[in-house]
User: Fold this.
Amino acid sequence: MEKNAWKGYELAIIVPVYNEEDNIAALELRLSEFLPQSLLPACVLFVDDGSRDASLARIREACRRQRHFFYIALARNGGLSAAMKAGIDAARTPYVGYIDADLQTAPDDFNLLLPYVKEYELVTGIRAHRKDKLFKRLQSRVANGFRRMMTHDGATDTGCPLKVMQSAYAKRVPFFTGMHRFLPALIQLQGGRMKEVPVRHFPRVAGVSKYHLWNRLVSPFVDCFAYRWMKKRWINYAVAESNIGE
Assistant:
């Protein structure tokens, strides 16, 4: 994607994809229907995270059909945090959005978040009436409670796969494995503010979840300690003056 291809867009919607071949057609339809309705001029940026199925081929086809669709493909699978960072690094828009490829949240609900993006550096959804199984909801509740205790971020549902961030803040987030769970805390470390908005949630209709007990519950506990270590060593600076040109 050439740099000038971003001209005219204010929002890049990042869609990490890993082995979601059965969802690509629905993604193309739902996202293409949303773009004309978006409160900000928007495009879609798929990030294929080293898929081993036909996901990348189907993404290429969708991008050929849709003029506002773009993609990058990672050389190997790196996980959700890596895919999100790759998308954020590639985007050249004032705002970046994020939605999962499983469509358990609706692209239309970006318009519930976008009215707040100028006032808040991170606007994130809260999954209202979650359609996940009871055990999955219980795991998320325990993990969220422990994370709030450790980070004091005040976030209700960091796992909600519907978010919009100001790009200047998103690009300074120190992403590493597991850090996608700490976006509110990492934005707040920069002096940014967070707004939570209830959004709809739907059951998965195609493909399979990539999450299990380890990466939904055990791994977040370990990551909380990594965050606490990093917080004590965080460097936050602002440039007051410069003669370096753009």
User: Anything to note?
Assistant: The radius of gyration is 17 Å. The mean pLDDT is 84. Strands lie at 11-17, 42-48, 69-73, 95-99, 122-127, 162-166, 194-199.
